[in-house]
Amino acid sequence: MDSNPMCPRFERAVEMLSKRWTSFIVFQLLNGPMRFVQIEQSLPNLSGKVLSDRLKELEAEGIVSRNVYPETPVRIEYSLTDKGRALTPILQEIGKWSSEWLPVPEAQQS
Amino acid sequence: MDSNPMCPRFERAVEMLSKRWTSFIVFQLLNGPMRFVQIEQSLPNLSGKVLSDRLKELEAEGIVSRNVYPETPVRIEYSLTDKGRALTPILQEIGKWSSEWLPVPEAQQS
DNA sequence: TAACTTAGTTACATTAAGTAACTGAAATAA
DNA sequence: TTATTTCAGTTACTTAATGTAACTAAGTTA
After folding, report:
1. Which CATH architecture has domain B11-98?
2. How wide is the angle at C-alpha A23 spanned by C-alphas A20 and A29, nearest 5°?
3. Average pLDDT, chain A
């Protein structure tokens, strides 16, 4: 029946990017290293709990690195690795598609 | 705090593609029109319930079209619209990234 | 009349995500 | 000295999304 199984690496990549918030976090980190609270603030509706989970997953995948600066109070910065920055073309293509095919949202009245 | 809000169209696109199974369904339909059960069989672990939900969402977005052939028994085929086929470069970039950055999985012993 | 096919839907169980309050360490502030 | 603040999360609990398996409905064939 299923005579044409998918490439397992492609499958894994899609699964990662399909997790809620993953792409947004990577997108934010394209601007440079950020602290936990900065990422949290830049993505309204993303809770600290899920951000914590995602950062751990992305670190385990080698997409994000966690850098500790033992200042006081301690500073911890998250940044993209080369592997993480290599996701850029994917996000660019999503940007192109969205500007070509999605409608411009209406302005909201207050 | 959040001085740089994201483009709402980009945001919507990422949200769509971040829904579990969406990208896989689009990927399968790139091979041509498919029936409900064919899609279900091509994606092990995708349940009929979620497939039904996703196809409705994708139809509502104008990415997939549902074509009814009143044969007997009835044949219903799902296919990509132009808007749906325009997602191809995104999936291609995911493919490129995965083959460059993800490890080749080990063969399994039985 | 009973069983089969296609295209789903429904009820229920499990997992993931959201919310708000809390922890712990170090450094001020009163 | 005790209290307060900052940073970086974690915990307990609620709600939403998914998964599972059985079921529905219409027409067809045996």
Report:
1. Orthogonal Bundle (1.10)
2. 130
3. 91
